[in-house]
Amino acid sequence: MTDALRQLWPLSQGDSELSAGRLAQLYDIPRLPWLRANFACSVDGAAAIGGRSEPLSGSADKQIFRLLRDQCDAIIVGAETFRLERYRQLRVSDERQAARVARGLAPHARLVVISSSLDLDFSGSSYAGPSPRPRVITHRTSDPARRAALTKHADVECIGETSVDLPGMLVRLHQLGLRRLLCEGGPRLFGELAAEGLVDELCLTVSPQLSLADAPRITAGVDAGIPRTLQLAHVVHAGGVLLTRYLMVD
Question: Which residue among 52, 94, 136, 172 is the one 20 to 30 A from 73 at the CA level?
Answer without folding.
Answer: 52
